[in-house]
Amino acid sequence: MKLLFLVLVATLLGAATLKGTGASRAEMPAEPALTEREQMRGRLLFMQCRACHAVTGDEGARIGPSLVGIFGQPAASVEGYDQYSDQLLSAKIVWDDATMDEWIRSPATMVPGNLMAYGGMASEADRQLLVRYLRKITAPATD
Ligand code: HEC
Questions:
Q1: CA 41, 122, 96, 73 torsion: positive or negative?
Q2: Residue 45 — left, alpha, or beta (φ > 0 → left; ψ -120 to 50 → alpha)?
Q3: CB atoms < 10 A from the CB of 114, how many?
Q4: What tens digit of pLDDT does each residue of 72-104 get?
Q5: Is residue 110 part of a domain?
Q6: Entry pTM
Q7: Distance 9 CA to ligand 1 centre (A)
Q8: Is 52 domain-assigned?
Q9: Would the CB of 91 count as within 6 Å of ligand 1?
Q10: How far apart are CA 90 and CA 112, in angstroms?
Q11: Which atom of ligand 1 is nearest to the CA of 121?
Q12: Is 103 exposed, middle or buried (0-12, 13-18, 19+ CB in 10 A)?
């Protein structure tokens, strides 16, 4: 019985680790899951983005492109979104934790002239949490 429990836990842990697998996972240590408090904070921070960005597959593009599956993708490659600026289209960025952090910190500094009307998030702790939260909510549904 005890053994069965251990096997179950090991399986669940394995699944949890695999779930967040993105393109840049190779160099990243496995992320611990968000605590409930982090989850709430993440949701609050994301309110600054959600007016312009969808994060589930059944919502279409808003003012900005859908962020579903954005991690691991090159910038300005969301299919069906045709409002990209030339600046973002020609920026050689692949979205991972570091580039996403830089973008959220100040989109206008990272890609001058881009069309995202967002001033930036100064707090490093908030940005790091938002990036972890984004990883979670933008993961494409697996079912
Ligand atoms: C006022 C609307 C608006 C807000 C608020 C906003 N965005 Fe954007 N976002 C855009 C637009 C428009 C673009 C496309 C910019 C371009 O092409 O120059 C964009 C682009 C992006 C991209 C690049 C997508 C791609 O396909 O490469 C990411 C990532 C992103 N936004 C994340 C965020 C996050 C995270 C927040 C919140 C902190 C946020 N955005 C807030 C409108 C917005």
A1: positive
A2: alpha
A3: 20
A4: 999 999 999 999 999 999 999 999 999 999 999
A5: yes
A6: 0.83
A7: 38
A8: yes
A9: no
A10: 11
A11: 38
A12: buried
- What's the CA-to-centroid distance between 57 and ligand 1, angstroms? 17
Domain membership of residue 123 (yes or no) is yes
What pLDDT, in 10s, does the model give residues 115-130?
A: 999 999 999 999 999 9
CATH number of domain containing 46: 1.10.760.10
Q: How many domains does the chain have?
A: 1
Range of the domain at 117: 35-137
The pick from 43, 44, 46, 52 for probing ligand 1's pocket by mutation, whose C-beta has the most ligand atoms within 8 angstroms, reads 52
| Residue 40 within any structural domain of the chain | yes
138 ligand 1 Cβ < 6 A: no
Q: DSSP 3-state assignment of 94?
A: strand
Contact status, residue 31 vs residue 135, Cβ threshold 8 Å:
yes
CA of 27 to the centre of ligand 1 (A): 25
